Amino acid sequence: MLDRDEDILKAAEDWQRAGRGVALATVVETWGSAPRPAGSSLVINDEGTFLGSVSGGCVEGAVVTEAMDVIQSGKPRMLEFGVADETAWNVGLSCGGTIRVFVEKVG
Hints:
This protein has 3 helices and 5 strands; from the N terminus they run H-E-E-E-H-E-H-E. It is an alpha+beta fold and 107 residues long. Strands 3-2-1-5-4 form a 5-stranded antiparallel beta sheet. It is globular, with a radius of gyration of 13 Å.
């Protein structure tokens, strides 16, 4: 079962209160066959711990890596994964669609 939005936001709040850097990744657009709908979220802390899902598991590793950079730099990023993208194949997004994920630092 996927985590509820309330659980994801609570984790972000708890991590921030504990002094952790936190980023939020949100699916902002999908095209074709996508594993998770727009609005799906993943919260990541500066230790690489995460909760939620933006892709049903197929690109989470790449999103976590990018989120760690966003936490460090404070600069948000728009990520795109799709079947035509070599990176997407490398991380396992072979579902035939495209997803765009916005990653921003929380706080």
